[in-house]
Structure formats: C-alpha cells, structure tokens
C-alpha cells in the first residue's frame, strides 16, 4: 500500500467514525440552537485539518504523494467555500440568548473565514491576496507568505524523484499501448466502412438486373400459363374425337396388314378388328397401340 492510499484510507476512517468523537460532539452540543456557531466551529475545524494537510504536503519528499495531498486540500477548500453562503445566511438569523452586538459582528467573521479558506496553500497558489476593502479584519494583518523576490523556485523544486519517473514512464507506456490499440481499431473501422461502401455500390448495380429478371420471370410465367391453356384445349379436342373414327383407322390399318402378309386368314382379321374396337371403347386406344401387334405376331 502506498503513502497516498494510506492517507486516503485514514481520512475515510476518520470521517466514518467522526460521530463517535466525544470531544467534538461535546463542542457541537455546547452551542445549543445556534446553527451559525455550530457550522462556524465545524468549518474552522476543517480549515485546521486542511492547513495540517497542506503543511504535510509541503514537507513531503515524494512528489506524487505531495501532488495527491495538494489535490485533496483543493477539494477540501472547495467544500469549505460551499459552506460560506450558508454561514452568511445564518449570520442574519436571530438566535435566542445571543446578544445583538455579536450578531452584528458575524458578517465580519464570515468574511475573515472566507479569506482564511482562500489563504490555505494548495500547491497552486500561495493564498489569496488581501484587498483594501477588507482592511478592518485585524486577524490577517501579521500574516506573511514566504516567496522568493524574483518569483522563481529553486531548481530542486522541479527535480523528479525515482518514483515519479517510474510513474511517468508507466504513463507513457500505457499511453503508447492505448494509441496502438486505437490505431488498430481505427484501421478496422475504416476497412468495415470501405466494405459497406462497396456492398452498397454492388447492390445499386444489381438492382436493374434484379428488376429485369423479375420482368422476364413474369413474362415466362404468363407464357407458361397461355401454353398450358392451349395444351389443355388441344387435349380436350383430341379426347373429344369420335371413337368411331379411331375404330375405322384401326380396321383400315389391320386390313392393310392382312393384305400385305396374305398369310393371315379372314378370321384372324375379324378377331383383331373386334379386339381393337373393344380396346378403343375401354382404353381409348392405349392397349390397341401397344398390345395388338403381339397378337398379330402370335397368329
């Protein structure tokens, strides 16, 4: 655990168990119903703690720890400055048991407290400068701030410690790795962007082809429908032919066969003709076309 972690841990523990501090609670209860006095005492206590923290930061040899402590002092100063408007509001409230003279002086006390908060060193400023309008506050007349005549710090102030150098190197390494990762991500995003652009262009080029294919499919579908209608009509016309015509043509065919062969008898011819008639009536010529030739061969 580093020094910074220890400092933050101690502060959090102190704030957590602050309500069990008997001395502090006794001091707060001593003011009774005077909310201004309670808040004023609490702010003064916080100012004292901030001054101690600032002194510790000024004597800290570890640069990183000093920076962290100064940052905490600045946060505490900001919180204390937020309490100043509340003190101004409470300063004008009449409190039972508080003399009028003390109520009149409370505005000056709030101004002095505000200057005291601003004067806390936080690593950036050495404290607020006094203006001529607040010269009546005698509690700040003898305050002196150490500073060099030319405004320059000693060279040791800017020297880096070993730990701060390690922090700096680690920061640079992490920053470099993050930059590399961001570059890779940027390249990937550019590639995806180009792919999306190419896909959009290709889709735009395919749209006319798809429309043409759709039109051709519709045309072919219509042609198939028309062809099916014509085929159906043709089949119906063919089926509607009289079976007498078919019978006549089959008889003619078998008569020609018998005359050509001259070896078949008249009984065979009549047998084939009767068989063809029966087949035409029953199966519309299917059996005649494929089976009757076998009877001819048998005879």
From TrEMBL:
> Which PROSITE patterns does this one have?
SYNTAXIN, T_SNARE
Q: Which InterPro entries does this UniProt record tie to the protein? A: Syntaxin, Syntaxin/epimorphin_CS, T_SNARE_dom
Give GO BP annotations, semicolon-separated: intracellular protein transport; vesicle docking; vesicle fusion
Q: Which GO terms describe its cellular component?
A: endomembrane system; SNARE complex
Gene3D superfamilies attached to this UniProt entry? 1.20.5.110
Gene Ontology MF terms in the entry: SNAP receptor activity; SNARE binding
Q: Where is the T-SNARE coiled-coil homology domain?
A: 172-234
Tagged with keyword Membrane: yes
What SMART domains does UniProt report for this protein, alphabetically?
t_SNARE
Q: Supply the SUPFAM superfamilies for this chain.
A: SNARE fusion complex
- TM annotation in the entry: 268-298
Query: Carries keyword Heme?
Result: no
The UniProt entry's sequence similarity note says: Belongs to the syntaxin family.
What protein am I looking at? Syntaxin-71 isoform X1
Chain's gene name: LOC103501939
């Amino acid at each position: 655990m580093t020094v910074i972690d220890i400092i933050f841990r101690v502060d959090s523990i102190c704030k957590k168990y602050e309500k069990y501090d008997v001395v502090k609670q006794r001091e707060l209860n001593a003011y009774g119903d005077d909310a201004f006095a309670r808040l004023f005492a609490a702010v003064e206590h916080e100012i004292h703690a901030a001054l101690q923290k600032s002194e510790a930061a000024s004597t800290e040899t570890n640069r990183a720890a000093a920076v962290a402590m100064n940052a905490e002092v600045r946060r505490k100063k900001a919180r204390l400055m937020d309490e100043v408007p509340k003190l101004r509001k409470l300063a004008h409230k009449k409190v039972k048991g508080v003399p009028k003279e003390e109520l009149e002086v409370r505005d000056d006390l709030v101004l002095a407290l505000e200057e005291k908060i601003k004067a806390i060193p936080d690593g950036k400023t050495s404290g607020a400068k006094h203006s001529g309008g607040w010269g009546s506050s005698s509690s700040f007349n003898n305050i002196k701030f150490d500073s060099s005549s030319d405004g320059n710090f000693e060279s040791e102030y800017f020297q880096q410690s070993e730990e701060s150098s390690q922090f700096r190197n680690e920061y640079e390494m992490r920053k470099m790795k993050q930059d590399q990762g961001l570059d890779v991500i940027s390249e990937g995003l550019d590639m995806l962007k180009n792919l999306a652009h190419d896909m959009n262009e290709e889709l735009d080029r395919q749209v006319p082809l798809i429309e043409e294919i759709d039109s051709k499919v519709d045309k072919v579908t219509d042609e198939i429908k028309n062809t099916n209608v014509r085929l159906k009509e043709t089949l119906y016309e063919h089926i509607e032919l009289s079976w007498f015509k078919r019978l006549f043509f089959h008889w003619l065919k078998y008569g020609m066969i018998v005359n050509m062969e001259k070896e078949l008898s008249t009984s065979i011819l009549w047998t084939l003709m009767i068989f063809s008639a029966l087949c035409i009536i029953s199966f519309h010529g299917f059996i005649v076309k494929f089976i009757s030739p076998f009877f001819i061969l048998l005879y």
